[in-house]
Amino acid sequence: MKVFTLQEANALLPDVAANLKEVKNLYSTIGIYRESARAAAVASEFGGGMQGGSRYVQALYEIGKITTELHELGVQLKDYSRGLIDFPSMMDGRVVLLCWQLGEDERIEWWHELEAGFAGRQPLPDEL
User: Fold this and answer.
1) Are 80 and 101 in contact (CB under 8 A)?
2) Which of 13, 50, 81, 111 has an alpha carbon 20 to 30 Å from 124's alpha carbon atom?
């Protein structure tokens, strides 16, 4: 697991935010085709297909590519629809998660314990 300093995580935010916006847009595309994809899956044994199938598959591919890139950076993607991410970091000798989501300031201001999740977010201490 990669561990980030606050400065390293903040430096990645512009690129990561752009990726999160793209994932959010791609999920919107997938949503448009979701029912058609289900119907096509049911009809697949009869050689079915779907209108917009290539756009649907391309959106799935792009989401996979972006999420793999984020994972390789060490960023934990928690919620695609909200653009919620965590960066593992050290605080007081233990691993915690620096927490950020689309729409927040352009710097990380929140953290939480590993098991606490979004509901357990706390403001970052001034000395971090």
Assistant:
1) no
2) 81
C-alpha 46 chain-centroid distance = 36
What is the edge-to-edge ordering of all strands in the sheet holding 122-123? 76-79, 84-91, 94-101, 110-112, 122-123
**pLDDT digits 0-9 by tens, 95-109:** 999 999 999 999 999
Burial category of 20 from C-beta neighbours within 10 Å (exposed 0-12, middle 13-18, buried 19 and up)? buried
pTM check: above 0.90: no
Tens digit of each residue's pLDDT (9 = 90 or more) over 76-91: 999 988 999 999 999 9
Per-residue confidence at 39, pLDDT binned at 50, 70, 90? low
Phi-psi region of 108 (alpha: psi -120 to 50; beta: other; left: phi over 0): beta
Instruction: Give the separation between CA 123 and CA 111, rounded to whole angstroms.
Output: 6
Nearest to 86 by CA among 74, 104, 94: 74
